[in-house]
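Here is the promised in-class demo. Please do not try to memorize the tokens; focus on the logic of going from shape to residues.
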């Protein structure tokens, strides 16, 4: 989806699209949808970003999904429907784990009540949110995804950093950030472009959902495994790269978020690890830096 040229309207259109998708996602959860909708409208502050079903890793093999998360304030809100009465002890352990991991104690809205009591709890939550914003003062960063997704933002910043969750919307935007354009092969696009005036540096935007290729990022973000899905082509592909000149890949991985928005996220600077590649019979790209200095 494209947004208008005026930056203010671009921001508002994106936020409208975002919130429409958010409420569509939770529409089948009637109580949760009602409570979150009332919080959003009663707060009436589109500077605050809402994230639903926020993934939180509790242990190595367990995770939780927070009903509502406000990332700028590090506030988690749990909406307990009546069936939670049977899970009191489990919920307590879960919330303690979330507190230990995030340093934020989940706020509970107990919906095993009449509507007046639920409204009262929501009013208290909204008051708390407003108080947190006020206490943060100038440290509060308004929700502004449109600006941070722009080429101009990244160029002005001057560098890319994995921990900053750097994202762009299209491969055209990724290439333009480096002062170049993606190459086309008919209606197809190449999976990368050379960095201008940088020998053996490539901007790479692998597709994790490619029909013919696998591009897998390891859970710790340190390796990308690149190989053809057809097993009989893997050895030749690996041989080609083992004999090729050394190449550094500034990498943006294509992914789709929970609301269906597609992004290209900077995941680091990678070089081919030949030893691991030979061992696994596939190209194994190892992250050598989590930052990259732009020169545009």
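The designed amino acids, position by position:
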């Amino acid at each position: 989806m494209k947004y208008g040229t005026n930056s203010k309207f671009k921001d508002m259109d994106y936020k409208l699209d975002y919130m429409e998708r958010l409420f569509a996602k939770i529409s089948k959860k009637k109580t949760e949808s009602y409570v979150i909708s009332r919080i959003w409208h009663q707060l009436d502050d589109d500077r605050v970003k809402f994230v639903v079903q926020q993934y939180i890793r509790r242990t190595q093999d367990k995770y939780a999904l927070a009903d509502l998360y406000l990332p700028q304030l590090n506030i988690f809100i749990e909406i307990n429907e009546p069936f939670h009465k049977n899970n009191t002890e489990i919920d307590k352990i879960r919330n303690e784990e979330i507190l230990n991991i995030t340093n934020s104690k989940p706020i509970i809205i107990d919906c095993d009540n009449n509507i007046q009591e639920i409204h009262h709890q929501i009013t208290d939550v909204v008051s708390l949110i407003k108080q947190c914003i006020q206490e943060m003062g100038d440290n509060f960063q308004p929700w502004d995804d449109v600006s941070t997704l722009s080429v101009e933002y990244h160029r002005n910043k001057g560098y890319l950093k994995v921990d900053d969750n750097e994202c762009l919307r299209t491969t055209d935007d990724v290439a333009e950030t480096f002062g170049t354009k993606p190459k086309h092969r008919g209606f197809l696009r190449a999976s990368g472009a050379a960095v201008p005036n940088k020998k053996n540096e490539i901007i790479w935007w692998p597709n994790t959902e490619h029909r013919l290729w696998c591009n897998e990022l390891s859970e710790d973000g340190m390796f990308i495994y690149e190989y053809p899905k057809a097993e009989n082509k893997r050895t030749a592909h690996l041989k080609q790269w083992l004999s090729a000149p050394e190449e550094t890949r500034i990498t943006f991985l294509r992914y789709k978020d929970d609301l269906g928005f597609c992004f290209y996220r900077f995941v680091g600077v990678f070089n081919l690890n030949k030893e691991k590649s030979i061992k696994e019979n596939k190209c194994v790209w190892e992250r050598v830096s989590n930052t990259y200095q732009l020169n545009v």
